Amino acid sequence: MSLDLRTGTDEELAAHWADAGPRDDLADEIFRRYRKRIYVWCYGYCHDVEESVDLTQEIFVKLFAGLENFRGGSRLSTWIYTIARNHCLGKLARQGDQWRKRLQSLDEIEVADLGAARLIRDRERRGELELLLAQARTRMKEEELEAFLLHYRDGLAVREITRILGCNNASGARTLIQNAQRKFRRLIAAKEYPDG
C-alpha cells in the first residue's frame, strides 16, 4: 500500500515507519511538519537561537530513534511534544540560570486588545513569537504558558495537554489554560505589545 506523504496523517506516517522501518522520506516529512513548532518550543526554554537549533536537532534524533515504538495510544503530536518537553526540562535543570538570564525586557511595547489565539498565530507568522513569550513568562508559570501555547497555538485538546504536561486529570490542564488566559488578557490590557 502506497502512502502519500504530503496528505497522510501524522499517525499514518508513524504506522508506516513502524511497519516498513526508518525511511528518509518519512523522516523528512515528519521533520517538515514539526521543525518550526519544536524550534519555537525550544526557544521558549532557552531563549537562544543557536541553542534552540541544537535542541531541535537533539529532539528529532530522539524522536526518530524511538518512532518505531510509537503505538498510537495518543496522537503523534502529543508524543512529539512530550519528548520535546522532557528534553528541554532536562536541559533547563542543568542550565536553568544560564537560560533565565536571556529573557528580554519588553516594558515599552504596546498592543491593542487581541484574542489570544489570533495574537499568537500573528506573532508566529511574523517571527515575533519569542518576544511575546518572553513577556508572557514574566506573568505566567511555565506550565500555564505551556498549556496555553499547546491549546491556542498548536490546537491540542485538553485531554492531550493533560498527557503532555503530566497533569493528574483534565481539570488540572483546564485550570492551567484558564489561569494563563486571565493573565494573558491582563498582559494585553496593559498594552505591552505592538499591534503592528
How would you describe this protein?
The protein has 196 residues and is mostly helical. It has two domains: 102 residues, Rna Polymerase Sigma Factor, Chain: A (Orthogonal Bundle), CATH 1.10.1740; 92 residues, no CATH class. It is 69% helix and 0% strand. Helix 8 crosses helix 9. It is globular, with a radius of gyration of 17 Å.
Can you give me a brief rundown of this structure?
The protein is 69% helix and 0% strand. With 196 residues, it is an all-alpha fold. The N and C termini lie far apart (48 Å).
What labels would you give this structure?
single chain; 196 residues; 0% strand; 9 helices; mainly alpha; 2 domains; 69% helix; Rna Polymerase Sigma Factor, Chain: A
Which regions have little confidence, pLDDT < 50, spanning 5+ residues? 103-114
How many β-strands, per DSSP? 0
What is the N-to-C order of secondary-structure elements (H for helix, E for strand)? HHHHHHHHH
Q: How much helix, percentage-wise, in residues?
A: 55-70%
What is the CATH topology assignment of the largest domain?
Rna Polymerase Sigma Factor, Chain: A
Q: What is the total number of structural domains?
A: 2
CATH structural architecture of the largest domain: Orthogonal Bundle
**Biggest sheet overview:** none
Derived structural class: mainly alpha
What form results from the Cα inertia axes?
globular
